[in-house]
Amino acid sequence: MIKNFVEELTWRGMIHTVMPGAEAHLMESMRSAYIGFDPTADSLHIGNLVPIMLLAHYQRCGHKPIALVGGATGMIGDPSGKSNERNLLDEKTLRHNQEAIKNQLAHFLDFESHADNAAILVNNYDWMKEFSFLEFIRDVGKHITVNYMMAKDSVKNRISSESSEGMSFTEFTYQLVQGYDFLHLYKANNCSIQMGGSDQWGNITTGTELIRRIGNGKGYAITCPLITKSDGSKFGKSEGGNVWLDANRTSPYKFYQYWLNSSDEDAEKYIKIFTFLDEATINTLISEHNEAPHLRVLQKRLAEEITTMVHSKEDLNNAIKASNILFGKSTSEDLKALNEQTFLDVFDGVPQTEITHDDVENGLDVIAALAEKGGFLKSNGEARRALKENSISINKEKVKEDYKITKEDLINNKFILLQRGKKNYFVLSVK
Questions:
Q1: Is the separation of the CB atoms in 354 and 430 below 8 Å?
Q2: Between these two residues, 307 and 73, which has the higher pLDDT value?
Q3: How do beta strands 241-242 and 392-394 pair?
């Protein structure tokens, strides 16, 4: 059964421009649509989540999604919204990246079923690699005028007097190559729609033009808004750079925290875009949140939904446990359950000092650990006073003056967490 895709995206705030006739075209029968993904890394990042969600909603509305990995276009570089050319990759690296990207997309798209609208993954390198330069300029290039190409914003911005970089011929041809992708998929896969961010409108419409001129057919374009944050900072970036979908690049804990730290305004926008929750559920959550914003109902639900989708329920539970560690709701066992990366992420910025394995093997006196060896507190006297006040914890458990730290206390065979009061932390790292 076909559901109204444009209507679904509209209430979610995910529509920027729809080419006239596209909505009616989609309501007639199952249609194929594609979105291109940049394969220059072996992981997508959360900036890619909007196009991923577009394809996922598309499939849920009864249509067939095609994810295109831009192996050929990745060798050129898309000029849209960029001021520099990108590094070019070899084929082996591109193939590795393609496989990794497909695994991530499979969290959102059904590639495996035998349904008519099962998703497929294609790589434009497969049809571009045999194309000679002369064939391309003869069979494709002659159909699009330079005037048409120069009128695109992505080109105008790069060759304007304000741009110091200019634009290579390689990047100038990008829109022709992407346009040809659309024509190829139109002929080979009966794909009549291309979707993407609003900055892709120029490239997509070049494709619809090629379908009209060479394929004697009709292609459609649908774009979504580029996501912005209410404070003006760039969406998808943290202090450490991109927020990746790969757990080895961005831990599930840090991923969860990124969404949990959304502002109220952003969380209300994001929960529509980045979850599959229906309109009634989202409106109820927004009402609950507005009644008690300090409870951060929206942020918590958003972070839960998206962490589970990208990673797993188990990763979400571990991220929640790790988040609770900083606020005193945890035990030594919870700490010891953290892997090394999550432990370092949770205590990022907490002062650390190194001690030796011998110190721990022999049993390290708690006063020495706090003062002379560790340097958490200034003197043995201050350490004794803090211990008498019952304000010192090791791995979240209160200790007395006679306590000795042994290898049984090690977290991941490497760390010991010292704490004074509720919020003063210090990490001993065993080398």
A1: yes
A2: 307
A3: unpaired
For the chain, helix (H) and strand (E) counts, in that order, are: 21, 15
Half-sphere exposure (Cβ direction) of 317: Cα atoms closer than 13 Å: 5
Q: What is the pLDDT of residues 158-179, one digit of tens each?
A: 777 666 677 888 878 888 989 9
Which residues are CB-contacts of 300 (< 8 A; sequence separation ≥ 6)?
A: 260
Q: Which residues of 129-144 are buried (b: 16+ CB within 10 A; e: fewer)?
A: eeeeeeeeeeebbeeb
Structure-block tokens of residue 366? 């708690």
Report the DSSP beta bridge partners of residue 123. 69
Q: Is 366 in a helix, a strand, or coil?
A: helix
* Sheet architecture: strand order including 120-123: 17-18, 220-224, 191-197, 32-37, 64-69, 120-123
Question: E strand or H helix at 394, and its extent?
Answer: strand 392-394
Read off the pLDDT band of 80 (50, 70, 90): low
Query: CA-CA distance, 138 to 390, in Å (whole number)?
Result: 82
Query: Residue 345 corresponds to which amino acid?
Result: D
Please, which residues bridge with residue 417 across strands?
427
CA dihedral of 76, 80, 83, 84, whole degrees rounded to 10: -10
More confident residue, 237 or 140: 140
Q: Rounded to an integer, what distance in angstroms lies between the CA atom of residue 252 and that of residue 135?
A: 47
